[in-house]
Design brief:
- This protein has a domain of about 40 residues.
- About 40% of the residues lie in helices and about 0% in strands.
- Helix 1 packs antiparallel against helix 2 and helix 2 crosses helix 3.
């Protein structure tokens, strides 16, 4: 089983700065901001970004983050590719109200 790299307080590589524009770059924590890093990478990243998150977080961890987020948080084309790359049938939809 492939181990992922130990996460530190370090920031992702500089190539992530444009896709993590919603976060304050100096304060990014690769562990604390993992969900934002992964979601933004799936939506806005290229193949280099995708390979980096897989290398750092591991394919199964990325999949678990994606499954915690709603389908509406992803661009349709990104959703489709993520489902193939990370092997899962569908994203969650918003929960309906009990009323």
């Amino acid at each position: 089983m492939k181990q992922s790299i130990k996460l530190t307080k370090e920031r992702p590589p500089e190539i992530f700065r444009p896709i993590l524009w919603s976060l304050r770059w100096e304060d990014i924590d690769m562990h604390e901001d993992k969900d934002d890093i992964i979601v933004n990478t799936i939506n806005e990243g290229n193949l280099v970004h995708w390979r980096w998150i897989i290398k750092v977080y591991g394919k199964e961890n990325v999949k678990q983050v994606l499954l915690r987020h709603l389908q509406s948080e992803f661009h349709p084309e990104s959703r489709a590719l993520a489902q193939v790359v990370f092997s899962f049938p569908r994203f969650s939809h918003a929960q309906r109200s009990a009323h």
